[in-house]
């Protein structure tokens, strides 16, 4: 008999949401479980998990589909382009979730994508409700909507208490990206 798959949310303004999800992937890889992470926002940037994820293959697959963080200084993509890519990420996520190939699917920064209006809340609710019963589904990102929190089995809110950026310390390789 299959175990019940969980819906897990890592949200909040504190650091560590993606890192917590990657911790699940690392742990699952130790048991030869198959994990897929679909990244909704970070796709065009270069960051540590892009490189380390290759070391976890074939148990871990990362699909970085986004065009980078939306609306920040070096964002050269239009809102329409971000929306188009996010809709593609929903399509890919649906395929991965329904494929039967994975034990865990991580939708990285999807809560942020909903908050920015890049994906529809209803589409994400449908994804959650239609997941296979034995699949663990992890959603990360700021601003988790109440409707999604209600559907989850586990919700953890990261709360920022202190951050190096407040003291002029820039993002650090291996810690922040």
Question: How does this structure look, described?
Answer:
The protein has helices spanning 17-29, 48-55, 79-98, 110-115, 121-130, 146-151, and strands at 7-11, 35-39, 60-64, 104-108, 136-140, 154-157. The protein is an alpha/beta fold. Strands 3-2-4-5-1-6 form a 6-stranded parallel sheet, sandwiched between helices. α3 (79-98) runs parallel beside α5 (121-130). The longest helix is centred in the middle third of the chain and has 20 residues, at 79-98. The termini are far apart.
The SS-based structural class is alpha/beta
- Determine the N-to-C terminus distance: 39 Å
Order of secondary-structure elements: EHEHEHEHHEHE
Helix content: 25-40%
Individual helix count = 6
Largest sheet descriptor: 6 strands, parallel
Strand order of the largest sheet: 3-2-4-5-1-6
Kindly state the mean pLDDT as a whole number?
A: 89
The coarse silhouette is: globular
Rg value? 16 Å
| Residue fraction in strands | 15-25%
Low-confidence stretches: none
Please tally the β strands and state the result. 6
